């Protein structure tokens, strides 16, 4: 699958008339493909973007374009749809974000630099909100799985919702087969399938323990969404949460989320490999 990464947003630059400049950046994960174009803010629309995408795709067309910035998503989706290209929101645009940071160092040398505060990849995130009450599972717990069992244990099973991208396989992260991958297991009971589908729609990215009163387990999802998956005040659960955080440091951030109807081990409803972007 040919994946491109794209961003279209206002930069700390202006044209000769004082109008803010927007910049389009497109690349593939290896940056063998790079495309860059500026336009004044008055032209920053899907029509201009469609024209640029037509030029960028003269040699080859991607299967999908990943976009990490919410403000860019709808414009790029509209433009790409006109050309039959699928667009997906995705935080994991590592190559593009590195390029954006490099570009931010170039702007002060360009004509029209405004010297305004600019953070190229920072996004405003809303405060976390509780997941809908009708989705709450019956019970949840911290757990671990041997790295060697992750791929073989889940990739070939008939799990309705399964998100295991190759780049998150433990072996592709250079993790030893003996290391234990931390995660969260939710017994959803009758809500199991409904919860798994809701999670799939919201695109889980990572889980984090946040100490407080009470402590919380926060799900990062989508592009900027944050959800309160659980709260707790039990001392044993807090210790397990701290261990979960420590284990993530040993696994380069890799962890998992498993939704199942019960503890029988026979049926799984949803499984995600997760890692902070």
TrEMBL record:
Q: Which residues form the RNA-binding protein Tab2-like N-terminal domain?
A: 3-103
Extract the GO molecular function terms from the UniProt entry.
RNA binding
Residues covered by the RNA-binding protein Tab2/Atab2 C-terminal domain: 119-275
State the PANTHER family in the record: PROTEIN TAB2 HOMOLOG, CHLOROPLASTIC, PTHR34556
Q: Could you identify this protein by its name?
A: DUF1092 family protein
Q: Which organism is it from?
A: Lyngbya aestuarii BL J
